[in-house]
Amino acid sequence: MESMLHITTLHYLVLGAALFLLGVIGVLTRRNVVIVLMSIELILNAVNLNLVAFSRMWGEVHGQVFAIFVITDAAAEAAVGLGILIAFFRNKETVNIDEVNLLKW
Amino acid sequence: MGQIIQYIQSYRHSDLTPGAAGNMFWALVYIMLVFVGLSVAVIAMNWLERKILAHMQVRLGPMRVGPHGLLQPIADAIKLLLKEDIMPAEADALIFWVAPFVVVLAAFTVFVVVPFGPTHAITDMNIGILFMLGVSSLSVLGIVMAGWASNSHYPLIGALRSSAQMVSYEVAMGLAVVSAILMTSLNADGTGTLSMIGIVQAQQAQHEWFIFKFFPLGLLAFFIFAVAMVAETNRAPFDLAEAESELTAGFHTEYSGFRWSLFFLAEYSAMIAVSSIAVTLWLGGWLRPFPNLLSNSTWDLVFSLFPGITFLFFAAICFYNAARMPKHPLFRIQTVGLAGFGAVLGLIGLILFIPAVSIRVQDIFWFAAKVAGFMYMYIWYRGTFPRYRFDQLMHMGWKVLLPMGLGVLVLTASVALLQEKLWHP
Amino acid sequence: MAPVATPFFFYLLSGIMLIGGILVITRKNPVHSALALIVTLLAQASIYLMLYAPFVAGVQIILYAGGIMVLFLFVIMLVSIDRSVKERQFNSQWIVGMIAATALGGLFIAVFMKGKNIFPEHALPVIENDNTQNVATMLYGQYMFAFEIASLLLLVAIIGAVVMAKKRI
Lengths: 105, 425, 169
Fold this sequence. Notes:
The structure holds three protein chains of three kinds. Chain A is mostly helical. Chain A has helices at residues 2-5, 9-29, 33-58, 62-92. Chain A has one domain: Helix Hairpins, CATH 1.10.287.3510. In chain A, helix 3 (33-58) packs antiparallel against helix 4 (62-92). The longest helix of chain A is centred in the last third of the chain and has 31 residues, at 62-92. Chain A starts with a helix and ends in a 13-residue tail after the last helix. Helix content of chain B is 68%, strand content 0%. The radius of gyration of chain B is 23 Å and the shape is globular. By secondary structure, chain C is mainly α. Chain C has two domains: 1-87, NADH-ubiquinone/plastoquinone oxidoreductase chain 6, subunit NuoJ (Four Helix Bundle (Hemerythrin (Met), subunit A), Up-down Bundle), CATH 1.20.120.1200; 127-169. Chain C has helices spanning 6-26, 30-50, 54-79, 82-86, 94-114, 131-140, 144-165. The B-C interface holds B 19-20, 22, 24, 92, 94-95, 98, 125-127, 130-131, 133-135, 137-138, 140-141, 144-145, 148, 156, 160, 163, 167, 191, 194 and C 1-2, 4, 29, 31-32, 35, 38, 54-55, 57-59, 61-62, 65-67, 69-70, 73-74, 77, 128-133.
């Protein structure tokens, strides 16, 4: 109980791992494309949390700079992903990933 | 018990804000004060808007409810609270319920860092301006949620238009803010600051309000921000998304009663918040006017009398109008009410002359006076300008204000660099 | 500024984040998922504040919660059809997915158990007041090249998204 009260870096890493797991479950099990994209955002946030926690551990800001770059990349990837989703929706009128099976044998 | 008293007393001799000093009790007191002050300001804004718009349109505005309509906002509030709470059929109940609260939270949380004086802020985050811009961009989410949850055409289109407009003008606002932040770094050790109190202190150290710095660059940045902030809060002339004649009140069409009053409260609070940003960044925050030109101690004394004189002036207006009331027995209660209100204002004015109160209130008074000037400008714009059409609005946000903001930023940086190389090689 | 009641806030915020994450992956209505994600992102910004990273917290609020999530909500409003809410939500490989996630979780637990003691006992003290200056010095000094590439990446992403979402090229 005493170790639960003093918050160390390990606590933040466990939190990041839990968020990562939730994101992975979302990507693997959901059919709605938008929710899959949001689960990918959860994964990226878990990574950011790890980076910032380690940056705090060492007392330097390299981790925070990398986290800013990750947020920027997440924005770019969300924009492109949603663009693809809109183009796909215009063709097929559905947002289920299971229906993206034109190349399936 | 003695420990609690000591905890409370220990803050009184510090020169930090309660948040920075870690003092929970005074932070809560300041939060209560800001909340109450903001509510009073919103009520006053409601009355002032109706009266000033009316006088600009050569009519009188509300005159019946209290003397000169002074109790009209209270009557409106009671009416809104008692109205039936309608939720449209097949509306998403959770989102419909949450949307007004998101907008109100975003509008009120911003006031945590607004600096009313060098230690009169709830806290002084060292990313103050970034926090304010970020949290005020959360109100876009509330508007999108409100439009979506209403399950009806007009609110959806209104919400889409309103949020597109807010997001576009946020970019222009951000560029203008960056130009002002650039100017804070022109001090001796070359480091700027993002904290709101630090920005005003930078203006104090450089002896120049940023609106006058590098003329006309400071003025242009201020102008860009002033236009963008009116568009950001969906006020005239950029109020296409909520104008009655265009979209039947836009994203808050389906809201009635208490929920609508939350949107209305959030709109006025957001207006006061972005005006506070403009006042802090360009108009010197809590500094009194003419700090360089009229800087000896007699002028300090004269300017320190201004709070009391302002309230005595308002009291004089009240008494004059009470004397002008019709001498009819049915008007007696209004005359007495107005004279009583004038007496209260006069008492406050007299209290503000006491030196012990006056030195504490100075900073807050000048800040509030400048923000009140901005509020008057908002009402003036509403009474004067015709409405922008939506494509004209987006054209102006992206094709006029954004290039102008970029140009001002690059020019400000170049002039600052030149000044450093030429004057301090 | 000394942190106050760190364990309480840490557990509160991590609880909010985990509940928000669970709501994101389990809701039928994508708008509810987006709202839960916004709550998660805001709680994460608060955790960044606890980790003495105020600039990253500000960037997270402005970019993630105020930018990316607005984008998500717009697109959800554009493509959301009532039919998708009434369909089956979890795909047919969900058992395999859960097994894979459990394996990953087991791996994480093993790593954390084994490496529990290699972290320094207390984090080094961090002066908070010039966090923004330090980040800026690093960003525009050592990582300038990466910064320029990130801006190019954003340009390419914007052009790509506009081209893909246009009605007629």
